[in-house]
Amino acid sequence: MERRLLPLALTIAPILVSLVITAGLILAVGAQPNVVFEKIAEGAFRNSEAFAQVLNFWIPLTLCSIGLIVTFTAGLWNIGVEGQMLMGAVFASWAALSLPLPHILLIPVEIGMAMLGGALWALVVGILKTRLGVNEIFGGVALNALAIQISLYLISGPWQPPEGGSVRSSPPFQADALLPPLAETFRVSLLALIIVALAAAGVWLALRGTRWGLQLKATGKNARSALLLGVPTTRTSLSALAVCGAVAGIAGAYRVLFTYGSLRQGVSGGIGFLALLVVLLVSVRIIWVPLVTILFAAILVGSSRLKIATGLDASLASVLQDIVVLVVLLFNGVRARFNERREKAVPEAGAAHE
């Protein structure tokens, strides 16, 4: 009974502690915590239009988080997911601007190109790591910066609007290149929701019941030992990065093919970095990803009403998110220490009994 209750307590406790800390900060600036939380919830769920905005942020955030589950399982800190998302957006934009295909063919081609762009950008990180010994964190950061410069060059150069150069946006995409919404009153892409569900189910099944999933886990636990046991660690790491990049590329495609309808400066919106926090928050457990990402999306969208209703800046939502992540990481450290001590205690107890 104790073994079941303790993990549950360590999961719930950090959320409660973070809420208490946030409530204290809100009181310190002269506002009422219950009013703030109520306005955030109201801003996110007050009507179908607001909820659609939540889902439109949830979709790319969840996709990036799902991809990162794969690389974290393989022991890779894929900081470059932001650039992979951006290159997916660039590749999808190229298809939208250049290919004269009917809608039924153009949409799959755009998504396929986005997956290709994200996967190739992720493989560069993998090759730098496996062939040249460049840590994936440093390689990812460098490629993020390069992806930003590539997108800026395109929208201010070859893809500039007809009225002249701009670093804000490419020309709007043709109607056939855009993902259709479910309804005018509920502007969310059904295809994107299906892709999220398939990606989550596919990764969950792959990690639980396939040889590739076992190889990812073995590589992530101890790459040197896994190699000695015959696991192709280099190929496994590259495949993990490619899968993550492909999924992140779809997230980028959604931003340009639905959210904006064009390639824009900063189109990734920091979603890749937020996804890193999500994966750390759920301790690389994919089952929790959709729930945590919907919470984050609701907080970010709902915070838009804070300024109007309470006079507080919307950045309070980011403070709440950061506090949650920090407290959960601290509790995860406590949990890891506790598990380590318990594992050590079991052999000692057995030796004493003998």
Alpha plus pi helix count: 14
User: Which percent range describes the beta-strand content?
Assistant: under 5%
Count of distinct structural domains: 2
**Poorly predicted parts:** none
Distance between the termini: 26 Å
How large, in whole angstroms, is the Cα Rg? 22 Å
Shape: globular
User: Roughly what is the average pLDDT, rounded to an integer?
Assistant: 85
Second-tier CATH architecture of the largest domain: Orthogonal Bundle
Which class do the helix and strand fractions yield?
Answer: mainly alpha
- CATH fold naming of the largest domain: ABC transporter involved in vitamin B12 uptake, BtuC
Strand tally = 0
CATH class of the largest domain: Mainly Alpha
Level of helix content? over 70%
Largest sheet: none
Element order: H for helix, E for strand: HHHHHHHHHHHHHH
Structural account:
The protein contains 14 helices and no strands. The protein has helices at residues 2-28, 33-45, 48-73, 81-98, 103-132, 136-156, 190-209, 211-221, 223-228, 233-259, 271-281, 289-302, 306-310, 316-353. The chain is mostly helical. Helix 3 crosses helix 11. Helices cover 75% and strands 0% of the residues. The two termini are 26 Å apart. The chain has two domains: 1-31 and 312-354; 53-302, ABC transporter involved in vitamin B12 uptake, BtuC (Orthogonal Bundle), CATH 1.10.3470. The model has no long low-confidence stretch (mean pLDDT 85).
Task: Tag the structure with descriptive keywords.
14 helices; ABC transporter involved in vitamin B12 uptake, BtuC; mainly alpha
